[in-house]
Amino acid sequence: MVKSQSWPKGTPPLEIATEKVCYIVIKAREFDAKDIATIPDPGSNAADDMMYSVLEDRSDDPVLEELTSVIQNLDEDEQIDLVALAWLGRGDGTLADWAELRRSAAEAHNERTADYVLGLALLSDYLEEGLNQFGRSCEGVELGRM
């Protein structure tokens, strides 16, 4: 049985589920924890490169590919809310400005939304702060349950 969530009175609706945002937050943190590539051409055997490549930021990074795919597979309203939520968390407005933030995100929406969102240096922090302003949190969300 799924418990229904009650949000603070007067909170505007979000088109994207909190769980989806939290999944993106968790994955973005995994990706952000990576370092620049120090070994330009790692060995073909993971033992040869002492597994450093797992911790390095590479264009073919599976976490980046997964994040890109997840964001691209969101419907348009969810992508718009994701961008607006990041802007809200970045301090571009307050919850009272949500309709305007969302309208601006809708105007800016295009097929490169995933690239834009993933280019935000503090994406996970922005999304969490945006959720907090809605009275929502990723606390207690487990990746395995998603």
From TrEMBL:
Q: What's the superkingdom here?
A: Bacteria
Do you know which Pfam families this protein is assigned to? Answer: DUF3775 (PF12616)
The protein depicted here goes by the name DUF3775 domain-containing protein
Lineage, broadest ranks: Bacteria, Pseudomonadati, Pseudomonadota, Alphaproteobacteria, Hyphomicrobiales
